[in-house]
Amino acid sequence: MSNKSPKIQSFETRQAFYLFADIRGFTNWAGKYQLEVRDLISYIYELAYTIFGSPKQEVLLNRVVKFLGDGFFAVKEYTPKTFGTALEDLMEKCILFNKTFNEYIESSQFHEPKKIKFSYGISFGKTERFNIKGMSFDYIGDRINFTARLCSYGNNEQIIIDHDLIDNIESFIKKSNLKNKLHFDQIELKGFSDNKDIIIFELGNAK
User: Fold this and answer.
1) Which residues contact 11 (CB under 8 A, 6 or more apart)?
2) Which residues contact 101 (CB under 8 A, 6 or more apart)?
3) Which segments of the chain does DSSP mark as H helices, in order?
4) Residue 125 β-bridge partners
5) What are 103-129's pLDDT values in tens digits?
6) Is the model more confident about 52 or about 54?
7) Contacts of 149 (CB under 8 A, 6+ apart)
8) How far is 118 from 154, CA to CA, in rounded Å?
9) How many helical (H) and strand (E) elements, i.e. helices and strands, does the chain have?
10) Which of 3, 30, 56, 142 maximizes the CB count within 10 A of its CB?
11) Residue ranges of the alpha helices (H) in 107-141?
């Protein structure tokens, strides 16, 4: 029986928004309530697919790329003409996901539901999109690593956002009549030489 090595079928530059999301303190919670982990993860994956998109053929991909244990990685590709609306759509989906998830958790039988909260990281730019035969598309590039680091910096119910999106985020809040608070910070991210300016979008008071 021979083992065939994976072969890349396509490799092309794409522009997209990148989203990482995961549960803060999941390891400690799961260690205490192992019998509840399966039901929680099943719900998270189903909800993520429903809101952020599942694999299907589209010119501009808008989907969950992969699940990462207690979280997921999603993308929303854009063109120069769709940049603003694509970001607004992604922000709306984050708010909807967070709200729907919290309502489910609070009405469930999970132990310590207040400790089951998501944080999110959003960035954008060019990466390389590729796929291997028999597998879905994936992305590679420093933007992916950067976005994952942003997510890991966040606390409960915060979206940590690339500071270069500040004008778009402020416009989105005003247009949507939201009351979300914005904070700003400069942080050092592992693997990046310079300190990075970030936006902290508080989801807790989203309407």
Assistant:
1) 128, 129, 130
2) 44, 47, 118
3) 26-32, 34-52, 83-106, 142-153, 166-176
4) 16
5) 999 999 999 998 899 999 999 999 999
6) 52
7) 121, 189, 190, 191, 192
8) 9
9) 5, 8
10) 30
11) none
